[in-house]
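queue> pop job 88
queue> type: inverse folding (structure -> sequence)
queue> payload:
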Protein backbone atom coordinates (compact mmCIF):
# COMPACT_ATOMS: atom_id res chain seq x y z
CA UNK A 1 0.00 0.00 0.00
CA UNK A 2 2.79 2.43 0.93
CA UNK A 3 4.52 1.85 -2.40
CA UNK A 4 1.27 2.53 -4.28
CA UNK A 5 0.51 5.69 -2.31
CA UNK A 6 4.02 7.09 -2.74
CA UNK A 7 4.25 5.97 -6.36
CA UNK A 8 1.36 5.99 -8.89
CA UNK A 9 -1.14 7.60 -6.51
CA UNK A 10 1.28 10.39 -5.66
CA UNK A 11 1.90 11.30 -9.30
CA UNK A 12 -1.80 11.01 -10.15
CA UNK A 13 -2.84 13.33 -7.32
CA UNK A 14 -0.14 15.89 -8.18
CA UNK A 15 -1.15 15.83 -11.84
CA UNK A 16 -4.87 16.26 -11.10
CA UNK A 17 -4.11 19.09 -8.67
CA UNK A 18 -1.83 21.06 -11.00
CA UNK A 19 -3.85 20.59 -14.19
CA UNK A 20 -7.14 21.15 -12.38
CA UNK A 21 -5.97 24.38 -10.76
CA UNK A 22 -4.67 25.73 -14.07
CA UNK A 23 -8.04 24.97 -15.67
CA UNK A 24 -9.90 26.71 -12.83
CA UNK A 25 -7.81 29.87 -13.20
CA UNK A 26 -8.18 29.92 -17.00
CA UNK A 27 -11.95 29.44 -16.70
CA UNK A 28 -12.16 32.20 -14.11
CA UNK A 29 -10.33 34.66 -16.36
CA UNK A 30 -12.36 33.67 -19.40
CA UNK A 31 -15.53 34.14 -17.36
CA UNK A 32 -14.83 37.83 -16.81
CA UNK A 33 -17.25 40.05 -18.69
CA UNK A 34 -15.47 41.30 -21.79
CA UNK A 35 -17.01 44.78 -21.75
CA UNK A 36 -17.37 45.41 -18.01
CA UNK A 37 -14.03 43.97 -16.90
CA UNK A 38 -11.42 43.27 -19.53
CA UNK A 39 -11.72 46.56 -21.43
CA UNK A 40 -10.94 48.61 -18.32
CA UNK A 41 -8.16 46.26 -17.23
CA UNK A 42 -6.42 46.47 -20.59
CA UNK A 43 -6.83 50.23 -20.86
CA UNK A 44 -5.34 50.95 -17.42
CA UNK A 45 -2.88 48.12 -16.62
CA UNK A 46 -0.76 50.13 -14.18
CA UNK A 47 -3.70 51.24 -12.04
CA UNK A 48 -5.19 47.74 -12.25
CA UNK A 49 -1.97 46.05 -11.14
CA UNK A 50 -1.59 48.45 -8.22
CA UNK A 51 -5.17 47.79 -7.10
CA UNK A 52 -4.73 44.03 -7.46
CA UNK A 53 -1.56 43.95 -5.36
CA UNK A 54 -3.07 46.20 -2.69
CA UNK A 55 -6.12 43.94 -2.42
CA UNK A 56 -4.14 40.68 -2.20
CA UNK A 57 -1.57 41.98 0.28
CA UNK A 58 -4.19 43.61 2.53
CA UNK A 59 -6.20 40.39 2.80
CA UNK A 60 -3.05 38.34 3.50
CA UNK A 61 -2.22 40.43 6.57
CA UNK A 62 -4.07 39.53 9.81
CA UNK A 63 -6.39 42.43 10.69
CA UNK A 64 -5.17 44.20 7.56
CA UNK A 65 -8.70 44.96 6.36
CA UNK A 66 -11.88 46.27 7.98
CA UNK A 67 -13.47 42.87 7.33
CA UNK A 68 -10.79 41.08 9.35
CA UNK A 69 -10.98 43.65 12.16
CA UNK A 70 -14.75 43.22 12.49
CA UNK A 71 -14.34 39.49 13.16
CA UNK A 72 -11.33 39.01 15.48
CA UNK A 73 -12.16 35.39 16.43
CA UNK A 74 -12.69 34.42 12.79
CA UNK A 75 -9.47 36.20 11.82
CA UNK A 76 -7.35 34.37 14.41
CA UNK A 77 -8.86 31.00 13.48
CA UNK A 78 -8.55 31.69 9.74
CA UNK A 79 -4.89 32.64 9.87
CA UNK A 80 -4.06 29.98 12.44
CA UNK A 81 -5.46 27.41 10.04
CA UNK A 82 -4.06 28.74 6.79
CA UNK A 83 -0.55 29.64 7.94
CA UNK A 84 -0.01 26.11 9.18
CA UNK A 85 -1.82 24.59 6.20
CA UNK A 86 0.62 26.31 3.83
CA UNK A 87 3.91 26.13 5.73
CA UNK A 88 3.78 22.59 7.13
CA UNK A 89 3.10 20.66 3.88
CA UNK A 90 5.71 22.68 1.97
CA UNK A 91 8.50 23.02 4.52
CA UNK A 92 8.21 19.97 6.80
CA UNK A 93 11.51 18.08 6.86
CA UNK A 94 9.95 14.67 6.14
CA UNK A 95 8.05 16.09 3.15
CA UNK A 96 11.21 17.66 1.75
CA UNK A 97 13.13 14.42 2.10
CA UNK A 98 10.35 12.69 0.18
CA UNK A 99 10.36 15.36 -2.56
CA UNK A 100 14.14 15.17 -2.84
CA UNK A 101 13.87 11.42 -3.34
CA UNK A 102 11.08 11.77 -5.93
CA UNK A 103 12.05 14.84 -7.95
CA UNK A 104 15.42 15.96 -6.59
CA UNK A 105 14.13 19.19 -5.00
CA UNK A 106 14.53 20.15 -1.37
CA UNK A 107 13.36 23.42 0.20
CA UNK A 108 13.99 25.22 3.47
CA UNK A 109 12.77 23.06 6.34
CA UNK A 110 10.93 24.02 9.52
CA UNK A 111 12.26 23.41 13.00
CA UNK A 112 10.46 20.26 14.26
CA UNK A 113 9.04 22.07 17.29
CA UNK A 114 7.71 24.91 15.13
CA UNK A 115 6.23 22.35 12.72
CA UNK A 116 4.42 20.68 15.63
CA UNK A 117 3.07 24.03 16.85
CA UNK A 118 1.82 24.99 13.38
CA UNK A 119 0.20 21.57 12.91
CA UNK A 120 -1.62 21.88 16.24
CA UNK A 121 -2.65 25.41 15.23
CA UNK A 122 -4.33 23.96 12.13
CA UNK A 123 -6.24 21.36 14.15
CA UNK A 124 -7.29 23.77 16.91
CA UNK A 125 -8.30 26.41 14.37
CA UNK A 126 -10.37 23.85 12.47
CA UNK A 127 -12.21 23.03 15.69
CA UNK A 128 -12.76 26.75 16.32
CA UNK A 129 -14.10 27.29 12.81
CA UNK A 130 -16.45 24.34 13.26
CA UNK A 131 -17.75 25.70 16.56
CA UNK A 132 -18.26 29.09 14.92
CA UNK A 133 -20.38 27.50 12.18
CA UNK A 134 -22.53 25.81 14.80
CA UNK A 135 -22.76 28.66 17.30
CA UNK A 136 -23.49 31.68 15.09
CA UNK A 137 -27.00 31.62 13.55
CA UNK A 138 -25.96 33.78 10.58
CA UNK A 139 -23.21 31.28 9.74
CA UNK A 140 -25.11 28.12 10.68
CA UNK A 141 -27.97 28.92 8.28
CA UNK A 142 -25.49 29.04 5.38
CA UNK A 143 -23.61 25.89 6.39
CA UNK A 144 -24.33 22.52 4.80
CA UNK A 145 -22.92 19.03 5.19
CA UNK A 146 -20.72 19.85 2.19
CA UNK A 147 -18.95 22.60 4.19
CA UNK A 148 -18.19 20.20 7.03
CA UNK A 149 -16.90 17.64 4.54
CA UNK A 150 -14.52 20.19 3.02
CA UNK A 151 -13.26 21.11 6.48
CA UNK A 152 -12.77 17.42 7.29
CA UNK A 153 -10.82 16.82 4.07
CA UNK A 154 -8.68 19.86 4.86
CA UNK A 155 -7.78 18.91 8.42
CA UNK A 156 -7.51 15.10 8.02
CA UNK A 157 -3.88 15.13 6.76
CA UNK A 158 -2.82 17.12 9.82
CA UNK A 159 -4.68 14.94 12.33
CA UNK A 160 -3.33 11.72 10.83
CA UNK A 161 0.12 13.31 10.61
CA UNK A 162 0.07 14.09 14.33
CA UNK A 163 -1.08 10.55 15.18
CA UNK A 164 1.79 9.13 13.11
CA UNK A 165 4.22 11.72 14.51
CA UNK A 166 3.51 10.69 18.12
CA UNK A 167 3.22 6.99 17.15
CA UNK A 168 -0.24 6.58 18.66
CA UNK A 169 -1.07 3.09 17.42
CA UNK A 170 0.31 1.38 14.35
CA UNK A 171 2.79 3.86 12.85
CA UNK A 172 2.77 2.33 9.36
CA UNK A 173 -1.03 2.41 9.21
CA UNK A 174 -1.28 6.05 10.26
CA UNK A 175 1.56 7.05 7.94
CA UNK A 176 -0.32 5.46 5.06
CA UNK A 177 -3.53 7.22 6.16
CA UNK A 178 -1.66 10.51 6.35
CA UNK A 179 -0.39 10.14 2.80
CA UNK A 180 -3.81 8.98 1.57
CA UNK A 181 -5.60 11.95 3.18
CA UNK A 182 -3.08 14.36 1.68
CA UNK A 183 -3.64 12.91 -1.77
CA UNK A 184 -7.42 13.03 -1.36
CA UNK A 185 -7.06 16.73 -0.56
CA UNK A 186 -4.97 17.32 -3.69
CA UNK A 187 -7.44 15.47 -5.92
CA UNK A 188 -10.49 17.18 -4.38
CA UNK A 189 -9.08 20.71 -4.52
CA UNK A 190 -9.80 21.60 -8.17
CA UNK A 191 -13.38 20.29 -7.95
CA UNK A 192 -14.48 21.83 -4.65
CA UNK A 193 -14.32 25.02 -2.60
CA UNK A 194 -10.70 24.09 -1.92
CA UNK A 195 -9.97 25.63 -5.31
CA UNK A 196 -9.76 28.90 -3.35
CA UNK A 197 -6.10 27.89 -2.90
CA UNK A 198 -5.57 29.68 -6.21
CA UNK A 199 -8.92 31.38 -6.88
CA UNK A 200 -8.47 33.53 -3.77
CA UNK A 201 -5.67 35.34 -5.59
CA UNK A 202 -7.66 35.57 -8.83
CA UNK A 203 -10.78 36.97 -7.16
CA UNK A 204 -8.89 39.38 -4.90
CA UNK A 205 -6.90 40.61 -7.90
CA UNK A 206 -10.09 41.19 -9.88
CA UNK A 207 -11.78 43.09 -7.04
CA UNK A 208 -8.63 45.11 -6.47
CA UNK A 209 -8.47 46.04 -10.13
CA UNK A 210 -12.14 47.04 -10.05
CA UNK A 211 -11.61 49.36 -7.10
CA UNK A 212 -8.30 50.62 -8.47
CA UNK A 213 -9.86 51.59 -11.81
CA UNK A 214 -13.65 51.72 -11.90
CA UNK A 215 -14.91 52.15 -8.35
CA UNK A 216 -13.30 55.37 -7.28
CA UNK A 217 -9.67 54.47 -7.81
CA UNK A 218 -9.39 56.83 -10.76
CA UNK A 219 -11.82 59.42 -9.45
CA UNK A 220 -11.23 62.80 -11.03
CA UNK A 221 -9.59 61.32 -14.11
CA UNK A 222 -11.07 61.22 -17.60
CA UNK A 223 -11.73 57.49 -17.35
CA UNK A 224 -15.12 56.76 -18.97
CA UNK A 225 -16.35 53.93 -16.70
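queue> result:
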Amino acid sequence: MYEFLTGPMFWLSIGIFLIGMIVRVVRYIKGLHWQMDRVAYRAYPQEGLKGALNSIISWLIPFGTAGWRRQPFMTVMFFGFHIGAVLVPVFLLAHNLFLEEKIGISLFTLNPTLADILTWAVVISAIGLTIRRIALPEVRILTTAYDYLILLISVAPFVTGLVARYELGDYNFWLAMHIFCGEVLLIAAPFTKLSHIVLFFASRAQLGMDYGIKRGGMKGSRMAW
